Amino acid sequence: MPNFRYQSPDYMNMRRGNCRNLTAPAQASCQTSCEAPCRDAAPSPVCCNDKGGYDELRGMPLAMAYVPWQEWCALYEADKAFCRGTIFEELDKPFRGIGGCCK
Amino acid sequence: MSEQKPCRRELLEWINTVSFAVDDVKLFLDTHPCNAEALEYFEEFKKQRVQALKEYAKYYGPLTIDTASPCEDHWTWIHEPWPWQKGGC
Amino acid sequence: MWNYEKRLQYPVNITQTNPKTAQVIISQFGGPDGELAASMRYLSQRYTMPYNEVTGILTDIGTEELAHMEIICAIVHQLTRDLTPEQIEKSGFDKYYVDHTLALWPQSAGGTPWTATYFQSKGDPITDLHEDMAADAASM
């Protein structure tokens, strides 16, 4: 499994997921000196985690953290559960060392 | 009818296994107190655990205060090795 | 109140001593991300939770963390069991030994004594639960 470093361009691109707006916008940036006010330029959004319009938490209040509700499912046999440290397969998340990965 | 003395190590492994199942489902039930499947799972493994603890205490000494037998002529609780010692669990 | 069960939640049978490893593992006992801190965090926060479900789970997790603490202590104990003075000095474990011999004392691997500053218990349920999630992630 690849070991992603958090700040590498590859990792950030993968997090954004095929985002179309990664390249710099064609129009002049307002940071350079410009005579005309920049308000006429269409804002070019910096792509941040574009989910393509689908967000599981759409409509929920902002500035809150949410935790999904666990269901009763996918139980291990008792012997395996004891070895894995959980009776729930969904909670079997082995430690993989540094770097982490997207799942 | 003679009872066969169970293997200590195997019985302890079984106690660990069923007790762990009880521990984990207990946490699930804390936040899902009405889940019928979880309640059933708890009942089953609790039954196994109680039975196993009783059997262990009979042959190898008590693991819990509730299985310490008052019929013994000495206090067996302190006699078997402690869990971090050789021969403990 | 608490009962005690005379077994480890997971067995520990170490046959080869290793004081260097013990010096590191002891952080899981008395360090900032260790089991003692975890246990005290949950057992302290549970008094001000507004729902029985949450009080229940904090009580039960806090209790289980005490059992985990016992496992860690068993590991450190077995890694340092019957060490000779030469082994103690050679491994760097002498700095711990001089103050505690082979006893278990809650400190981090670096020698910082365990402190309640390793956790927070603020009384606001959302704050406390965030603390719990951060702590659990840190301990992994």
Comma- or semicolon-separated keywords:
heterotrimer; A: 103 residues; little secondary structure; 2 helices; 15% helix; elongated; disordered N terminus; C: 140 residues; mainly alpha; Ferritin; 7 helices; 0% strand
Could you write a compact summary of the structure shown?
The complex is a heterotrimer of chains A (about 100), B (about 90) and C (about 140). Chain A has about 100 residues and is largely without helices or strands.
- Count the E strands of chain A: 0
Name the average pLDDT of chain A.
Answer: 69
Could you report the average pLDDT of chain C, rounded to the nearest whole number? 96
Biggest sheet architecture of chain A: none
Q: Percent helix among the residues of chain A?
A: 10-25%
How many strands in all of chain C?
Answer: 0
Count every helix of chain A, treating DSSP H or I runs of 4 or more residues as helices.
2
The share of residues in extended strands of chain A comes to under 5%
List low-pLDDT spans of chain C.
none
* CATH fold name of chain C: Ferritin
Structural class of chain A: little secondary structure
The coarse silhouette of chain C is elongated
Oligomer classification: heterotrimer
Helix-strand blueprint:
The complex is a heterotrimer of chains A (103), B (89) and C (140).
Chain A (H helix, E strand, L loop, with lengths): L8 H8 L61 H7 L19
Chain B lengths: L7 H24 L4 H25 L29
Helix pairs in contact in B: 1-2
Chain C lengths: L18 H7 L1 H4 L4 H11 L6 H29 L4 H7 L2 H7 L24 H15 L1
Description:
The complex is a heterotrimer of chains A (103), B (89) and C (140). With 103 residues, chain A is mostly loops. Chain A contains two helices and no strands. Chain B has 89 residues and is mainly alpha-helical. Chain B has helices spanning 8-31, 36-60. Chain B is elongated. In chain C, helix 3 runs antiparallel to helix 7. The longest helix of chain C has 29 residues, at 52-80. Chain C is elongated. The mean pLDDT of chain C is 96. Chains in contact: A-B, A-C, B-C. Chain B binds chain C through residues 12, 15-16, 19-20, 23, 26-27, 30-31, 33, 62-66, 77, 80, 82-84, 88-89, and chain C through 3-12, 53-54, 56-57, 60-61, 64, 70, 73-74, 77-78.
